[in-house]
Amino acid sequence: MRSVEHVVDFLKSHQLSVATAESCTSGLIAAKIGDIPGCGAVFERGYVVYSPEAKNDCLGVSFDTIEEYGLTSEPVAREMALGALRHSGSNMAIANTGVAQADSELDGVVCFACALLIDGCEKVTSETVKFDGSRNEVREAAAMYALLQIPQYFDSLVRS
């Protein structure tokens, strides 16, 4: 898929409703979906959660997970996606947490997770991707990456 429009069409054709749980992209994923006419058929809600407290309060991310793996980790992204799925009327949730700008090896590292409710079962997949560029270039690239990966995430979760 090459565009957000194609992703929205994919969601419609598979009768998917998506919720977003965003940290480093600060709502960019939700905004990009919202730019597409007819997105209301597939977009249920979006969460922007930066702090550990927000991740816990809004999505139920465990403080133990945050302490053990770090705020920007795949286990946290997985719990964010599952929390968005459980706290919404959606059957799919996409989440990210990462570091858009830092003076360390974590600069540009973003963790993604996608959760899917299928036949009453919750499934989740996750990955970590490194992006190059300025803070806003990383955030933009991460938001587009998350959206364009939705069909692949869906396919891998349906097959698992």
From TrEMBL:
InterPro entries: CinA-like_C (IPR036653), CinA_C (IPR008136)
Pfam families: CinA
Gene3D superfamilies: CinA-like
CinA C-terminal domain location: 5-151
Record-linked NCBIfam families: PncC_domain
Official protein name in the record: CinA C-terminal domain-containing protein
Taxonomic source organism: marine sediment metagenome
Origin organism lineage: unclassified sequences, metagenomes, ecological metagenomes
